[in-house]
Amino acid sequence: MSAVTGERWPRRDFVVNGAALLAVGWGSRPASPAAGSKVIRLVTNWYAQAEHGGFYQALATGIYARYGLQVQIRMGGTGVNVLQLLAGGAADFVIGSSPDALAALQAGIPLVTVAAFFQKDPQCLLAHPGVGHDHLEDLRGKPIWVSPGANLTYWPFLRAKFGFSDEQKRPYNFSLAPFLLDKYSAQQGYVTAEPFRVRQEGGFDPVVFPLADYGYSPYATTLETTRRFAEQQPEVVQKFVAASSEGWQSYLQDPRPGNHLIQQDNPNMSDDLLAYSHQALKDYGLLTSGDAATLGIGAMTDERWHRYFEDMVALQVVESQLDVRQAYALHFLPHA
């Protein structure tokens, strides 16, 4: 959630038709010089927030420096298309997700996912308490405020598994107001942010349906780089993945160093929201469940990638002839 607008989904929407980079000034940045003598540029998928905490923590506590890496973190935000930045050479790594990786693969963009820090996608639906919306299936036929990005991510899943219909969708306009005014409606959100906002703006705790707990299975907060960078600078990639994983472990234990840098980049991010989000990261097991429970933070597996790919093929979101193995690489992970 952005402390500026509250919008989430545009950070996962991107155009893959070779259009110009969307953020003013990004397209003019020079291509990366040789690794080892340059700053490693990480671009986040939204304004600085706790969902990026491990990366800021690794920078703030000197973990990146200990690995011999000089790292610069740049915020994403409204209108910043991070995958275009990566493909265009204006970033070395970006934060993405499984849907981003499959969309890039389908578009023929040579990107590769090298780590997955969120084992669960934080995406959820929020409903009002006390109106009979106690189970996800209770939202069938009810108005739900969603953004366009849902059409290529979780909405096909809800249609197929829970019988939702396109007639239910209402355009999410970056505000909680429509949801708060209609107690029989629902709204998209992240478990790490929107419940807090509803409590602040609406004065009640919403019913929260984390979609990962209902079978929606993408990785989130993934690290993406170009296939060329991964092939030419494998040691840099491996070090960056390992250092970022350590950063997340440190952030879960004591987020204060990372939060300090987050608020430097995004002064609108409040202490209360950072505290809520940090606790939600732990409560929902976003970093430590799934593959990470046995393999460590950042883990990915072939089985998980193939299962998600097959789910998206069945939902007609991606084409069946794609080779999903081209979307990710496991050998950079610490457990590999």
From TrEMBL:
Pfam families the record matches: NMT1
InterPro entries per UniProt: NMT1/THI5 (IPR027939), SsuA/THI5 (IPR015168)
Domain (SsuA/THI5-like) ranges:
50-256
* SUPFAM superfamilies to which the protein is assigned, alphabetical: Periplasmic binding protein-like II
The protein here is known as ABC transporter substrate-binding protein
List the source organism. Answer: Thermostichus vulcanus str. 'Rupite'
